Structures are given as C-alpha cells and as structure tokens.
C-alpha cells in the first residue's frame, strides 16, 4: 500500500451525485438516514486504510455500501455506481461508457446479494484496470 492515499469522496459530492441522478431520471428526494451515508463513506475509506490499498476495492466499497444500506429514499443504485465511477475517475482511472451493461449487471447482482464487494472490485479492475 502506498503512503499516498486517494482522493476520497466527500458527503457533499455524494449528495450532489444523488441529486443529479434524481434530476436526470426522477425519483423521491431525501436521505433515509444521514448516519448510514456517513457510514458508507467511512467503509470505503477503511477499504483503503485497512484493506488492500487498491482503488478498485475502494470504488466497490462505495458502490456496495451506498446501495446495500439504502441510504436515500430513491436512486440508491444510481448514486452508488456514480460514486464508484467518480471516485475512480478522480483518482486517475479512465472511465469509458462502453461497459454500461456490465456495470448495471454488477450493481443488480450486488442488490440481489449474488456477489459481494470483492467480485464488484474484480469487475471494476477488469473493465478499467
């Protein structure tokens, strides 16, 4: 693990991503539990500091915890994938949208408990690594 840590997402960024998603696709505004949002963000940072120190694991942690905790009233999966991709992009990973279907399938698999964070990280690594 490097001594340098990545640029983590702030609460403000995640809230803005969620708001943008609602503006584009519709849905009910609001946060179900503010503490769950903060917990999801902390879990992603912990994936770096106490896990592998790999940006793909951190991105998967953002997506996993934001979607699983159902932190917003609506648009949780959209906010989760946006957070993961913005995190990767902000940390030097080139994101291309030719993988939309695979990313969608990965998030649905997370929501249905068919895969976990490690598998989602592996998907991100394969697509963007």
From TrEMBL:
Residues 9-126 form the Fido domain. One of its GO terms (molecular function) is kinase activity. InterPro entries: Doc, Fido, Type_II_TA_Toxin. Signal peptide: none annotated. NCBIfam families: DOC_P1. This is Death-on-curing protein. It comes from Roseimicrobium gellanilyticum.
